[in-house]
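[Q] Does anyone have a clean structure-token version of this?
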Amino acid sequence: MSEEQVNVRYMVRDVQASVDWYVTHLGFQQISNAAPAFADVRRGALRLLLSGEKSSAGRPMPDGRRPEPGGWNRFELVVADLAAEVERLRSRGLTFRNDIVTGPGGSQILLEDPSGNVVELFQPAARP
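[A] Here you go.
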């Protein structure tokens, strides 16, 4: 493989709705779709695996726990103008967990996909 690829798996409630959301709002491209069990989308080197409860990743663990969407783990998308991106996504009715937070490394906000999984949008601080 010539390009480095990073795979992230998210459990989702509705595979097709998740594909549509990532493609429409965040510029991902669909790779494959076996909804309602599984689909994957790509943006640059990131391959996002979207697994429904009917996928092999949705099987119960030996102790009976079931994988589910949500939580706090996330991947980060770097954006050039965070405020403009937040405004664009809010105007489309998308859900954020917080407001923009700024620290020494830059600014960030947490966006939720239709299943409650988190995507961090991040704008690095300007460097002198």
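[Q] Thanks! Anything notable?
[A] The mean pLDDT is 94.
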